[in-house]
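Hypothesis: this fold can be encoded by more than one sequence.
Test: take the structure tokens below, design a sequence, compare later.
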């Protein structure tokens, strides 16, 4: 339930879009999900539903995916900053330290995504973009590891955000690879 709510916040509000098997985004989501176990076809469609009838090329789809992923990183950075400001002193010291590490990781991820966008759209270097998006993707896993390593007890506050970011970067990587091999 929380994951569905969070997903709704990363896209434009879902309209009554109808999907057909011939829609470009539907076909690309199906193809990408069939080759990558890190996300589902349904996740992909949910993320790109607002763009379903407007995106007709791989370049456009990579661009939208890049924007959604970067926007998601920005939201995570803002959320962490708010948590540290509003609850920092009262927060478990392990959690506070892990959140500080995650803030740094997601700030780096945002830079890596910006670099990847330049590589794809200015330099047409999908290989380098793939490396940068992969590095951004690692932010979610490394953030998760930070809570485990600190033996933080209980549900940590970024579990859902890390999962969604990881999936968004997986979709982006799949689309960059599709663009590269097109």
């Amino acid at each position: 339930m929380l994951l569905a709510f969070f997903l709704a916040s990363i896209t434009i509000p879902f309209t009554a879009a109808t999907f057909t098997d011939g829609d470009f985004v539907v076909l690309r989501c199906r193809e990408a999900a069939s080759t990558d176990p890190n996300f589902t076809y349904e996740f992909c469609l949910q993320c790109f539903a607002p763009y379903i009838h407007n995106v007709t090329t791989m370049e456009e789809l990579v661009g939208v995916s890049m924007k959604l992923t970067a926007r998601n990183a920005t939201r995570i950075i803002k959320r962490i900053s708010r948590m540290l400001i509003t609850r920092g002193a009262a927060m478990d010291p392990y959690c506070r330290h892990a959140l500080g590490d995650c803030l740094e990781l997601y700030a780096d991820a945002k830079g890596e995504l910006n670099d990847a966008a330049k590589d794809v759209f200015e330099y047409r270097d999908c290989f380098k973009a793939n490396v940068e998006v992969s590095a951004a993707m690692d932010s979610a896993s490394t953030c998760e590891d930070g809570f485990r390593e600190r033996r933080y007890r209980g549900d940590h506050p970024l579990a859902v955000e890390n999962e969604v970011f990881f999936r968004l970067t997986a979709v982006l990587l799949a689309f960059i690879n599709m663009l590269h091999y097109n």
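Confidence is low (pLDDT under 50) at residues 1-17. The first helix runs from residue 2 to 10.
Hypothesis status: open.
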